[in-house]
Amino acid sequence: MAANEIVDPTEQNDASLRQKLLQVVVPVLGVLLILVAIGGIGLHTYRTTRTGVLQLTHRLLQSVQRYVVQDVTAYMGAATLGGSFAQDFISHAPAAFTQGAFYSYGATMLRLVPQIQSYYLGDANGNFLLVERDPAGKGLEYTQLKTVGGHKIFHHDFRGTDGKIIRSEENDAENYDPRTRPWYANTIEKKSFAWTSPTIYATTKQLIVTGSVPLVGTDGIQRVFAINISLNQLSQFLDSLKISENGNAMILDSHGRIIAGHGFEQIVARAGGDPSRMTLDPATEGTFRRVYDQYRVRGAGSHPFQYDGRNYIGMAQDLPGSDSWVLLIVAPENDFASFARQSGREGLQFSVVIIVLASLLAGLLARQSRRTERVTRELRHERDQTNSESAALRQIAETPGILDPKDEALVLTEAMARVGGVQRAALWRLVHDGTALICEDSFDTRQTAHAGGFEISRHEMEDFFKIVDAGVPVTVTHAGSDERTAPFERLVMRDAVTQSLIVHPIRGTVGGRSEILGMITLENANFAPHLVYFLDIIAGIAAIRFGAMGTTGTTGNEASGSDTLPASPTALPEPRFDESLMQPPVAAGEIGKGLFPSVAVMVITFTDPVMEAEDEGSAVLPLIDRIAGEVQAIARRYELFSVKVAGHRLICVAGCTKDADPTAIWRLAEAALVLRETCMMLLSQANIEPIFSIGMDFGPAMGGELGNDPKSFNLWGETVTLAELMAQGAPDVGTIEVTERVYQALRDHYLFRSRGSFYAPRSGIGRVYVLATRR
Question: Which part of the chain is the Guanylate cyclase domain (predicted)?
């Protein structure tokens, strides 16, 4: 480890802590103290002002309440006082002048008092007189109940403002009898002034309430004088009272029915014109309902309350001279505290200005300090980065054989991963005239492991190869979302769960001209501009290595086409062939039973529906016989231990020895490549599409000869199962799919392409590769 990488965990930078305290904590603390002080003063001022406003509001509402009660009482006094006056005026008139006195009094009062709708006069003999405003004009209508030919009619005289008759009408009275009406019967029963419930007046279709008084004329006949007060007029009167900006008043009778108030026409329409249904609706008159409930419990007075998150002041007062009516007043508290709210708002604005100025000053101070610290940190980071790059380059320079292509380039990928702070760094070489890329080495910092040898082809990811051909560095934040790098992310990056990708070209001189020899890939890198220069140096070293291999990416072994394998540690027996395929030769040597530590298993699966057809099966028998002969020859050539047939499967085994045989997987891999080419050629000559796939695994297995004469050799275990799964899961016909154990054993001398992950029962998740060719 370099000296600059050693860290003392007990060391503490006290100077840095003090600097941060002075740069950030002190200014922020000062602003907070100012904020708390201003907020405390504002809160105290607001509470003091609010308390005074509420007291003033309470007194003001009490004065408003007395004023409204006075006005409403005066409004209703036209009935009570008018009734008393009429009681004396009409009762003392001579009997012959009773009708004239009634009409004269009524006409005068209707012209002077707008809230009065009409006057009634009924007696014990069933006579009835009425004077009211003419609905069609500005005059008055005089009505008298008469009996003509034993039939009751209403005789109407319409008089103008000058008192002259304009027209007269008569209509059927339908046996009308004033003595049966509530205004007459209730008054006779009470023997004093009485009010009736609200009713719809037939002529104007408005709600009225009737106040009536009993009287006895000079002729001794019992009479009742009634006055009709318009509730619509009363509601308009209440709406005209300016209680506050949003305050309203409403009058209810002793049964909770609405007599008059705000929005009276909507209330009448909601009740369908039925006075008995004119009650408070919680949805629209919730505040009045709350005040009325408090009035019924606590009586008249002021009742502050909260409704739907807002503060209200409600007041209830009995109306004198009425039939147990109650006046309700509701006003939002804010209507009377608006000036306090405005004062508080202005105070808040001043406070905000002060806080902003203080914050600006503190921010400028903190910003200047942070900028200085950031520049210092960037300089320190650049110095550390330079030291890191220098140490990495020094380590590369001290590595023997770094320019020799026969030696692995592990130090290069490790240096890029450490300097760039990446999750995975890799070197790729263009081969096969630029139609493929081979991973020379890949270093994963999370697993601290190297990998390599797998191949990607141009026809699988044409757009990605265009990035390499462009010869300029490319950074992709989300490789899976970019159509150029999505295939590379799916085949290479997805298993490592990486997202971002940096592609840096490797350019070298071949035949006197500059060409792209490969690329550098960095996954999940914290890219910085200065990293480009370091990558250029690594790319130059890699270009020298790749140039020594040739533009097609061949090494000495591949160029010569040699398939020489290392010598086996012991003499191997002759191959054994299952009798179901061909006659076996005599096996040389005895094979024991038990666990074999390094068994290589290859499964070849044939899937041709022609072989199952009885009428055409004989036509392919020569082809099958020739394939069997080639398999025998390949097994002897690479000293395989056993070839067994099971249905459409061939199972080839190498390495069934008590001692570990490191050459078993090499020999089986060579046999697989030769067998693949042989089968492809034979099937092509027979004009048959490739109908086979190959799977391989390498590891321990159990086996031995079982039964009596003749003995049968059998092999079982996870290695056999995984080899068969590889054959079944091969992506294309004619491909050789292998497990990660095979890849780890052969990756230095063979080329592979990563396929991703797979799941096997009892084995879990593993990596899968496709064996391409020798290096």
Answer: 603-727
Phi, psi (degrees; rounded to nearest 5) at 33: -65, -45
Q: Which helix H or strand E contains 29, and what residues bound it?
A: helix 26-91
First-to-last alpha carbon distance for the chain, in angstroms, is 34
Query: What tokens were used for 397?
Result: 């320079």
What confidence tens digit (pLDDT) does each residue in 320-339 have? 877 788 888 888 877 766 65
CATH class of this structure's domain 576-774: alpha beta
Residues 626-646 have a mean pLDDT of 86
Domain with CATH 3.30.450.40 in the chain: 399-560
- CA–centroid distance for 747 within its chain: 46
In the chain, list all ranges with CATH 3.30.450.20: 233-338
Tell me the CA distances in angstroms from 346 to 52, 340, 342, 590, 679, one per residue in order: 18, 10, 6, 105, 93
pLDDT at 518: 92
Amino acid symbol at 394 = R
Residue among 487, 476, 481, 424 nearest 452 (CA): 424
Domain with CATH 3.30.70.1230 in the chain: 576-774
Q: Which residues is 600 bridged to in the sheet?
A: 654, 698
* Sign of the four-CA dihedral 129, 133, 134, 139: positive
Q: For residues 491 and 526, is the Cβ–Cβ distance under 8 A?
A: no
Name the average pLDDT for the chain.
Answer: 79
Phi, psi (deg, nearest 5) at residue 648: -95, 20
The highest-level CATH class for domain 233-338 is alpha beta
More confidently predicted of 158 and 589: 158
Q: At residue 201, does pLDDT exceed 80?
A: no
Pairwise CA distance, residues 89 & 87, whole Å? 6
Model pLDDT, residue 504: 92
Question: Does domain 399-560 correspond to CATH entry 3.30.450.40?
Answer: yes
- Best-predicted range by mean pLDDT (347-351, 621-625, 709-713): 621-625
